[in-house]
Write a structure and sequence with these properties.
This protein is an alpha+beta fold. It has 4 helices and 7 strands, in the order βααβββαβαββ. It has one domain (about 5-150): Aminopeptidase (3-Layer(aba) Sandwich). The model has no long low-confidence stretch (mean pLDDT about 95). The structure holds coenzyme A (COA).
Length: about 160
């Protein structure tokens, strides 16, 4: 079945992403953080669209290393607006993101998540991420950081 979620890339919308961030996350980035994210050449920021509505966002960096070196991506944030959670949209958005990476010949995608963020950890496991390292007491709340990784080129 075709994925009903579309990811629309934006290259200059720090204000809109900052506003979405505040609606989605309990600890959003500051506006200067967003300006910094958009000015990084590798940054790839997407609205998650269902029908004509913005449901959330994905913030990532895509490191393309040329023909002879493997390329990889870092997923910095995925967020679904609170009233649209638990309907499978996060999973569909991750799958759409993985297809974009596959089309760009990316080999691996990495992320870090708090071990206390159970919905996010469950989502990442569901779409095939594996923990390759754990940083103890990494976050200010004392939680561990789980470093997770997924291989992209074998997805269908
Ligand atoms: C994490 C997040 C993106 C999940 O989005 P979502 O659209 O609610 O997720 P889905 O409905 O696609 O769920 C996918 C899977 O994740 C897991 N999951 C989602 N919410 C969960 C919850 N509250 N508790 C436990 N597992 C959960 C389930 O395994 C689910 O699979 P299932 O449908 O077979 O049960 C969303 O909760 C969110 O935006 N959270 C705030 C921002 C955040 O913390 N982002 C991650 C760190 S950057």
């Amino acid at each position: 079945m075709e994925n009903p979620i579309r990811l629309i890339r934006r290259t200059a919308n720090s204000r809109s992403f900052h506003t979405l961030d505040i609606r989605i996350f309990s600890h959003p980035w500051s506006y200067p953080n967003w300006e910094g994210a958009f000015s990084t050449p590798a940054s790839a920021n997407y609205f998650i669209i269902h029908g004509k509505k913005i449901m959330g966002m994905i913030t990532s960096r895509i490191m393309e290393n040329g023909r002879h070196e493997p390329s990889h991506a870092e997923l910095d944030k995925i967020g679904i607006l609170p009233s649209f959670r638990n309907r499978g949209l996060g999973r569909l958005a991750m799958e759409a993101f993985h297809q974009i990476l596959k089309n760009r010949n990316i080999q691996w995608v990495y992320l870090e998540v708090s071990s206390r963020n159970l919905p996010a950890v469950a989502l990442y496991r569901k779409v095939g991420y594996e923990i390759y390292r754990e940083r103890k007491k990494y976050y200010p709340d004392g939680s561990n950081a789980l470093c997770m990784k997924k291989t992209i080129q074998n997805i269908v």
